[in-house]
UniProtKB/TrEMBL annotation:
Limits of the ABC transporter domain: 4-249
Organism annotation: Desulfomonile tiedjei
Superkingdom of the source species: Bacteria
Record keywords: ATP-binding, Nucleotide-binding, Transport
Coiled-coil parts of chain: none
Gene Ontology MF: a single term: ATP hydrolysis activity
SUPFAM superfamilies, sorted: P-loop containing nucleoside triphosphate hydrolases
Keyword Transport applies: yes
SMART domains, A to Z: AAA (SM00382)
Keyword hit for Transport: yes
Name recorded for this polypeptide: ABC transporter ATP-binding protein
InterPro entries associated with the record: AAA+_ATPase, ABC_transporter-like_ATP-bd, ABC_transporter-like_CS, ABC_transporter_ATP-bind, P-loop_NTPase
Length: 266
């Protein structure tokens, strides 16, 4: 389960009269009072699909994911998860992966256990935690506190914390931001392996075109704000993917760069 259907969805932010002006909020919002962010988005994601969302900064990717996760309501159109309309955030079937989401006063084990706090069976709980710490290669670090882990290990612990909940859909908004290049490459690999293992629907926002094309089953490219779907590509290439050997993949890479208005990187 984890099929997502988005139909003709729009999102407009409206400045409320009398609402305090937030520093750093969008200046366009104060000019006209209305800001169209998502413009008739229609998309279908299959159960178990790893979808990467690409688009210019500020186009509306986070807003789209927040609506699917139930944190925002659309201004028009609909979002269905497993044929049920999304009506607010639900901890049963979704999990939003945030970086720096670990609680610093808890060990890795305790942080991962947070997602299972409603579980009664302690033995089963311990088995689940052990299993997912193993998936992310953190066996042996159960008693460590977050500040005793490297950046990459912290992300892996966060990932274990998300996976242990066994969500139908996993939302990841630039989860590798701030990681060094090598760690990022390794995390990419881990996500691909992990996805083959758990086969959950994952919505993954990134600014990295190669990252998206290496990982995803589907890549969606949005226009500038208001975001419209510019490309919706199903990628049936086996992993690991190599742009230098696969000309079809390389052609797609070039077309995505072109769509995003970048020519020098070709
Ligand atoms: N709660 C809100 N109220 C008003 N405007 C908002 C709100 N949330 C987002 N926006 C505006 O909507 C637009 C899209 O923002 P969003 O965060 O979805 O972009 P993004 O594609 O995720 O950008 P980035 O790649 O930089 O993270 C921006 O102009 C932003 O200022
Ligand atoms: Mg964003």
């Amino acid at each position: 389960m984890g099929r997502i259907e988005i139909k003709e969805m729009c999102k407009e932010f409206v400045e409320r009269r009398g609402a305090p002006r937030v520093i750093n909020s969008d200046p366009d919002l104060h000019k006209g009072g209305h800001l169209l962010v998502l413009d008739r988005i229609s998309l279908n994601f299959d159960d178990g699909e790893l979808v990467c969302l690409l688009g210019p900064s500020g186009c509306g990717k986070t807003t789209l994911v927040r609506i699917i996760a139930g944190f925002e309501t659309p201004s028009a159109g609909s979002v269905l998860i497993d044929e049920k309309p999304v009506a607010g955030p639900s901890s049963d079937n979704i999990f939003v992966f945030q970086h720096n989401g670990l609680l610093p006063w808890m060990t890795v084990w305790e942080n991962v256990r947070l997602g299972l706090r409603h579980m009664r069976d302690r033995k089963e709980m311990a088995t689940r935690i052990r299993e997912y710490l193993d998936v992310v290669n953190l066996t042996g670090f159960e008693a460590h506190y977050p500040h005793h882990l490297s950046g990459g290990m912290q992300r892996r612990a966060e990932l274990a914390r998300a996976l242990v909940v066994n969500p139908e859909v996993l939302f990841m908004d630039e989860p590798f931001a701030g990681l060094d290049f090598l760690t990022r490459l390794k995390m990419r690999e881990e996500i691909i392996n992990m996805h083959e293992f758990i086969h959950k629907t994952i919505l993954f926002i990134t600014h990295d075109i190669e990252e998206a094309l290496e990982m995803a089953d589907r890549v969606v490219v949005f226009s500038d704000r208001p975001a419209q779907v510019r490309m919706n590509l199903k990628l049936d290439f086996p992993h690991p993917r190599d742009f230098t050997k696969d000309t079809a993949l390389e052609d797609i890479r070039r077309s995505v760069y072109t769509e995003l208005g970048v020519h020098y990187a070709l």
